[in-house]
Amino acid sequence: MKSKDHFKRPVSNKRVGINDKFWGRYIGLVKNVVIPYQWDALNDRIPDAELSHVIENFKIAAGLSQGEFYGNVFQDSDLAKWLEAVGFSLAVNPNPELEKRA
């Protein structure tokens, strides 16, 4: 086997960890601050912020709430991006409460 052959095989993100102080700070920030803040923003719970209406639009589409679509047609991607961030976070930092919310 050539020495560079190991670079050709994918590695599961569950087998990779980041223990660096620099990156650890940002991983913690995303996990503890950014993800919860984004959830509040998607649910229009940030005082004085422009309404996103993202979650409410999904509730309306599912028939769980009354109203009309509000915002841009691509706003559903904001929730998809949040779910992606949550998935990456949960892969390395299990959190049953966050998993239930997602």
Automatic annotation (TrEMBL):
Upper lineage: unclassified sequences, metagenomes, ecological metagenomes
Residues covered by the Non-reducing end beta-L-arabinofuranosidase-like GH127 catalytic domain: 16-102
Organism listed in the record: marine sediment metagenome
Pfam family, one: Beta-AFase-like_GH127_cat
Name of the protein: Non-reducing end beta-L-arabinofuranosidase-like GH127 catalytic domain-containing protein
